[in-house]
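Support request from a user on the community tier.

User writes: "When I paste my structure tokens into the form, the page sometimes reloads and wipes my input. The last time it worked, I copied everything first. Here is what I submitted, just in case something in the input itself triggers the reload:"
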């Protein structure tokens, strides 16, 4: 892997809590800070494309993401994305040829103790380096085919669809 392209779209992984508003908002992308703190041994660049909860990502946003990734020369791509519509976005990105694209996110904000963010990012980084070209989802310690996975909202995890 020459260089990893990271494209951020927002989602829970980047959410921060505002006490004065008693709600969460999407903040600055966290993945660059996380990778720097971990001292990774590869080059990466981060494009902060969107700052949205995935429930607010629409088809135009997905097309913008697809175009942004297709326009970059890097063959290895990691996308941070909210979990609620990650599968839908992955299906749009499947039209990009000759790139290995992994979508990941978090069920708890990266800034929170006990967040799954670092684990999911680590899984995604390993996957993007070892899998053939295609689109995959890295969540809950597994690599998923976007056509065969769904988010189980009640259990707050990804699982096989069907």
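"...and here is what came back when it finally went through:"
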């Amino acid at each position: 892997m020459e260089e990893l392209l990271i494209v951020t779209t927002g989602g829970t992984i980047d959410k921060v809590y505002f006490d004065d508003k008693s709600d969460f908002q999407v903040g600055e992308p966290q993945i660059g800070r996380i990778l720097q703190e971990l001292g990774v041994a590869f080059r990466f660049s981060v494009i902060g494309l969107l700052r949205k909860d995935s429930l607010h990502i629409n088809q135009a946003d997905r097309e913008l993401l697809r175009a942004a990734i297709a326009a970059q020369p890097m063959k290895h791509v990691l996308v941070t994305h909210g979990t609620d519509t990650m599968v839908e976005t992955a299906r749009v990105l499947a039209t990009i040829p000759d790139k290995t694209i992994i979508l990941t996110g978090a069920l708890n904000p990266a800034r929170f103790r006990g967040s799954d963010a670092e684990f999911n990012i680590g899984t995604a980084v390993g996957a993007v380096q070892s899998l053939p070209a295609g689109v995959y989802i890295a969540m809950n310690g597994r690599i998923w085919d976007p056509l065969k996975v769904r988010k189980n909202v009640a259990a707050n995890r990804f699982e096989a669809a069907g």
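Agent notes: The reload is a front-end session timeout and is unrelated to the input. The domain at 3-160 is CATH 3.40.50.1170 (Rossmann fold). The longest strand covers residues 43-52. Escalated to web team.
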